[in-house]
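To illustrate the input format used throughout this study, we show a single complete record. The first block contains the structure-token representation of the backbone; no residue identities are included at this stage. The design step must infer an amino acid for every position from geometry alone.
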């Protein structure tokens, strides 16, 4: 998997054939909710394999049936997974299948109709989140407003080690996160062309939450 750096924080765009194949099926408007959910979980698992590439390890001695072997085990910060409600929930199982020891928190936002500013309506983080490497999950990074606000709320709780993991991003969303949170690296399966007048990513895949839960 290859990535590229853009501006300040690192932006990694995955080009793995399996990810691109599965994403092409998700983009298809004829793909139903069941298959959409399965594919989102599968892509999240493939992505987190690479997102966690630089986790620290330490050498340990393991008794195999043959002899004592020198092996590697994780030794650094443990993982925390923070999906942004509601579409981020679709990525959780894929990550926890690969890292079952990760703790899972949740954050929910809505946009105030008067001020148009994001408002936190729910935030429950693992008790030791400030000591964990946190992966914020959300399939779509469009304007970047919600993701930026979610990261703000998480930082206000003392968390400093944060990575943002998205399925599809628009350049506008990337720019917003890099402006507001230059310390947060961004991992995406695809970097699309632009946002349309309704704030949807083009070509995108529509509303990820509606397609995930069959609410449209």
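Output of the design step:
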């Amino acid at each position: 998997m290859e990535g590229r750096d853009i501006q300040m924080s690192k932006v990694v765009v995955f080009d793995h054939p399996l990810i691109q194949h599965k994403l092409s099926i998700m983009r298809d408007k004829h793909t139903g909710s069941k298959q959409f959910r399965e594919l989102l979980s599968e892509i999240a698992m493939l992505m987190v394999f690479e997102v966690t590439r630089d986790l620290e390890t330490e050498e340990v001695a393991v008794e195999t049936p043959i002899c004592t072997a020198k092996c590697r085990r994780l030794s650094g910060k443990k993982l925390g997974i923070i999906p942004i409600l509601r579409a981020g929930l679709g990525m959780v199982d894929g990550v926890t299948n690969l890292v079952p020891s990760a703790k899972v928190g949740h954050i929910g936002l809505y946009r105030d109709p008067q001020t148009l500013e994001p408002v936190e309506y729910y935030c429950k983080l693992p008790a030791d989140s400030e000591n964990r490497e946190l992966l914020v999950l959300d399939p779509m990074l469009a304007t970047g407003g919600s993701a930026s606000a979610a990261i703000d709320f998480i930082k206000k709780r003392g968390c400093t080690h944060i990575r943002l993991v998205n399925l599809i991003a628009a350049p506008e969303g990337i720019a917003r996160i890099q402006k507001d949170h230059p310390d947060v690296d961004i991992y995406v399966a695809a970097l699309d062309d632009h946002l349309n007048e309704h704030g949807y990513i083009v070509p995108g895949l529509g509303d990820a939450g509606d397609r995930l839960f069959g609410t449209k």
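Structural context for interpreting the output: The mean pLDDT is 92. DSSP finds six helices and 14 strands in the chain.
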